[in-house]
Amino acid sequence: MTFDYDLFVIGGGSGGVRAARVAAGEYGAKVGLAEESRMGGTCVIRGCVPKKLMVFASTAGAMAEEMRGYGWADAEAGEFNWDMFREKLTTELDRLERAYTSNAERAGVEIHHQRAKLADHHTVELADGTRKTAKHILIAVGGRPVKLNIPGEELGLISDDLFLLEKLPRRALLIGGGFIACEFATILNGLGVQTVQAYRGEMVLRGFDNEGREHATQQLKDVGIDLRLGLAPTKLEKQGDRICVHFDDDSSETFDAVFFCTGRAPYVWDLGLENTAVKQHPNGAITVDEWSQTSVPSIFAVGDVTDRVNLTPVAIREGHSFVDTVFGNKPRNVNHDMIASAVYLRPHELGSIGLTEEQARDRGAVDIYSTVFRPMKSMFAGSDARTMMKLLVDPNTDKVLGCHIFGPEAGEMIQLAAIPITMGATKAQFDATMAVHPTAAEELVTMRNPSRRHHPGTE
Ligand SMILES: Cc1cc2nc3c(=O)[nH]c(=O)nc-3n(C[C@H](O)[C@H](O)[C@H](O)COP(=O)(O)OP(=O)(O)OC[C@H]3O[C@@H](n4cnc5c(N)ncnc54)[C@H](O)[C@@H]3O)c2cc1C
Ligand SMILES: NC(=O)c1ccc[n+]([C@@H]2O[C@H](COP(=O)([O-])OP(=O)(O)OC[C@H]3O[C@@H](n4cnc5c(N)ncnc54)[C@H](O)[C@@H]3O)[C@@H](O)[C@H]2O)c1
User: Fold this and answer.
1) I need a surface site. Which of 70, 246, 288, 392 has the fewest CB within 10 A?
2) Of 32, 42, 38, 34, whose CA–CA distance to 11 is shortest?
3) Which cofactors, by name (predicted)?
4) Calpha distance 364→362 (Å, rounded)
5) Pocket test for ligand 2, best of 55, 179, 343 (most atoms within 8 A of CB)
6) Residue 457 pLDDT
7) Which among 136, 215, 437, 454 is annotated as catalytic?
8) Catalytic annotation on 320?
9) CA dist., res. 400 & res. 413, Å (int)
10) Which one-letter DSSP state was computed for residue 434?
């Protein structure tokens, strides 16, 4: 049987573009790709990239404050100009979109700038009704934000909207306590917006190491975010050009903007899955094996639509591994166990890899090397901000099981610590590493004695 393509990719985001580009450019496959919106997907257009640029923008006030502590007595950030920033952001995202498009096209990928759905196990149907056949189909359609199913939810915004605002709100509510809620609260607060964050739990960033979560929760309050814990909205109502939010403690308040940062769901709506035997998890995520293959041998899925670990580098690695395996004759699957990540808060980020202390304790014996200190740079300026570094070590093998850093540039630090930890480094190897002085990161190689031990059966 002959096909129009060797591979047809649905979705031009992190996972889809990498797979298409490598299959066509490196392995000579005939590749088609459909993207219904902008090439680059969530990360480039409405996620990691614009978010991180806004995090950078939001640090001016804190930097000025710190510099006043260094003798720049008149240092002031002044007024943030949203119009000017947004224009630069638009130009940058346009540039990135063009780069993603031209890199894929240069590799030989045929891009169809329209929506696609599955018609059968080897056929996709484009929005204009054209049908294309392919030996293999890759579903890389990502996820979409979900709002809470409460009255008036249509009045609330989602994360995509932050980057498109006509003007910054004077007072904003962020609902949620995950990655997006905490990063967006940090950004808006730093840009001068009166920021309220409502989270139903006791501590933000569920799933992270509890000590890291405590520091993050405290920092959100310390930087001036009005963090309301144990609180959830029940209803939104229009009040003039503002929004009145009712909460489950019977209080109500008005805001200029309300953002639902309450999670994302796999974007499987109208994808034609009913025309195939592709299996799904109860939340809609596409079920795949360790090779990213679905229950249909010709159809694969990578990235957020599979709801494994929803991060850009993971989607990219899954897409790359899929083409190495299927087109490059280099079978490669992805280990989802040791994945570093960072939450870009300010002034301190939270960087993590491996087991949390809680998970390590559940697993068995663990030695906990942990230190909390005031970093030299901010302490000199008069700040009380604390940095935390923690290594979790298996006392039987001496292997480092996890590392958690709450501090300035923790994202950069955890990326480097992730290399030896992924290689299976032992604590002794960390200790054998000469420190770089004076840095904050040197603590990772100078923590000599466990702060606490958890040795079940011997305690
Ligand atoms: C605000 C925010 C901040 C984030 N920050 C980070 C971060 O700092 N670090 C990090 O690692 N991750 C971050 N993420 C997560 C990261 O963006 C995702 O994990 C990543 O983009 C997933 O890639 P993907 O290829 O699975 O899907 P996506 O990048 O979402 O790409 C899917 C593409 O498919 C297209 N599409 C969907 N359906 C169809 C269809 N039927 N036909 C044609 N096209 C279709 C979409 O338009 C989209 O372009 C963030 C996410 C958000 C929302
Ligand atoms: N720095 C990064 O790497 C980064 C940044 C942003 C997003 N991301 C990725 O995007 C994903 C999505 O981020 P997110 O923040 O939307 O999701 P999340 O799962 O991290 O957080 C969702 C939040 O919504 C709350 N929530 C859910 N249902 C609720 C309900 N019924 N009532 C009240 N609260 C409710 C949860 O308690 C949680 O705090 C992340 O899991 C992550 O994989 C990564």
Assistant:
1) 70
2) 34
3) FAD
4) 6
5) 179
6) 82
7) 437
8) no
9) 16
10) P
Strand partners, 237: 244
| ipTM for this model | 0.98
Detail the residues annotated as belonging to a binding site for FAD. 52, 304
Rounded alpha-carbon distances, angstroms, from residue 381 to 68, 69, 216, 349, 441 = 7, 4, 21, 19, 19
The secondary element (H helix, E strand) that includes residue 412 is helix 410-423
Which domains are seen in the chain, by residue range? 5-145+265-326 (3.50.50.60), 153-262 (3.50.50.60), 341-454 (3.30.390.30)
- pLDDT tens for 176-195 read 999 999 999 999 999 999 99
Residue nearest to atom 26 of ligand 2 (CA): 262
Amino acid at 429: Q
Return d(Cα 173, Cα 252) in angstroms, integer.
Answer: 12
Cα–Cα distance measured from residue 406 to residue 408, given in angstroms and rounded to the nearest whole number: 7
Is 9's pLDDT higher than 70? yes
The minimum-distance atom of ligand 1 relative to the CA of 142 is 27
**CA distances in angstroms from 105 to 22, 31, 152, 295, 323, listed in the order given:** 12, 10, 43, 30, 17
Residues 5 and 32 sit within 8 Å (Cβ to Cβ): yes
Decide if pLDDT at 318 tops 70.
yes
Which of 8, 38, 48 maximizes ligand 1 atoms within 8 Å of its Cβ, making it the mutation to test the pocket? Answer: 48
Binding residue positions: 52, 176-183, 263, 304
Determine the residue type at 110: E
What value does the mean pLDDT take over residues 132-152?
98
**Run of H or E residues at 341:** strand 341-343
d(CA 119, CA 110) in angstroms, rounded, equals 19
User: At 330, is the pLDDT very low, low, confident or very high (cuts 50, 70, 90)?
Assistant: very high
